[in-house]
Design goal:
Elements: E1 5-8, E2 12-16, E3 20-21, H1 26-36, E4 43-47, E5 53-54, H2 60-71, E6 75-79, H3 83-91, H4 95-98, H5 104-110, H6 121-138, E7 143-145, E8 149-150, E9 161-168, E10 173-180, H7 182-193, H8 202-225, E11 237-240, E12 246-248, E13 254-261, E14 266-273, E15 278-280
Parallel strand pairs: 2-4, 3-5, 4-6
Antiparallel strand pairs: 1-2, 7-13, 8-13, 9-10, 9-11, 10-14, 12-15, 13-14
């Protein structure tokens, strides 16, 4: 087994590089690159996630590989470059040769390949963590996470106020809705600001939007920087009613993330779908 490990599909070939790339690896990579040029894939990725260094003499086969790929209209990128190695490549003027990217998803975007995204546990978890953190830090309210489930319209939902943010990415659209029963929301607000409000007014509505903004912002950092979703910046809308009903009209399922606290239960609804829309009545 060689020092370079290959993973491939129809669109992409990933070349996992060894811990150290020295002069002894030059001939091995040169031979490997000749066979890789015969692959149908259009995009090649050098994965340097385990690589600590490249000796000066070992850069040459990568330059040749890049040139040969370009000659047959194929592309070469790299991921996983540690800071010291990336700086070395930049200092040598080789950044354009290696075309560094954050991860495979950003490579796909740079190469013009569509990246299919879906609503799954990896997407939901950042919102669960952000919600728990926001309530416990901002409102000094201990929160426990209940079991998520798929929403069924027939079930009753006690909602007096809701904040809604549209979720927009290159691959899908959808929404996140933070929903509170009226009394739960009043108790959280009153505890946080040491007030005694008996009903929801405009100032309290603004707080609902700010709270959702905090949750969305925290989750977006994980979803964009680590998972490559590239959620866009969005402003929340706040809905109030004695018996507010959130009605989703997109094609995808709606996931309910329920929470409990010493001040009452509340939940988040997340929908992801192509051209999905959300309405409240």
């Amino acid at each position: 087994m060689g020092n370079f490990q290959i993973e491939k599909d129809k669109e992409i070939v990933v070349i996992k590089c060894p811990t150290e790339i020295a002069t002894a690896n030059v001939e091995e990579f040169a031979d490997l690159s000749k066979s890789l040029l015969l692959e149908q894939a259009k995009v090649f990725i050098l994965d340097f996630g385990s690589t600590l260094g490249i000796s000066p003499q070992a850069f040459q086969p990568f330059l040749v590989f890049k040139k040969e790929l370009k000659g047959i209209q194929k592309m070469l990128f790299s991921i996983g470059l540690k800071e010291d190695l990336l700086n070395d490549i930049k200092n040598r003027g080789l950044e354009a040769i290696f075309s560094p990217e954050k991860n495979i998803d950003t490579v796909k975007k740079a190469a013009g390949l569509r990246t299919a995204k879906k609503l799954d546990v990896s997407f939901i978890n950042p919102f669960i963590v952000a919600t728990k953190t926001a309530l416990e830090v901002q409102a000094d309210t201990e929160v426990s996470v209940l079991k998520p489930y798929v929403k069924k319209e027939a079930l009753p939902y006690d909602i007096g106020i809701a904040g809604v943010i549209s979720l927009i990415t290159d691959g899908f659209t959808g929404s996140i809705t933070l929903c509170f029963p009226t009394q739960t929301f009043l108790d959280i607000y009153n505890k946080m600001f040491e007030e005694d409000n008996k009903e929801i007014n405009e100032e309290l509505e603004d707080f609902a939007g700010e709270l959702l903004n905090i949750i969305y912002g925290q989750a977006k950092v994980i979803l964009n920087d680590e998972l490559g979703h590239e959620l866009q910046k969005a402003l929340p809308a706040v809905l109030t009613s004695e018996k507010l009903k959130i009605r989703h009209t997109g094609q995808g399922p709606v996931f309910v993330l329920p929470f409990d606290s010493q001040l009452g239960k509340f939940h988040i609804e997340i929908e992801m779908a192509s051209n999905g829309q959300q309405q409240a009545a």
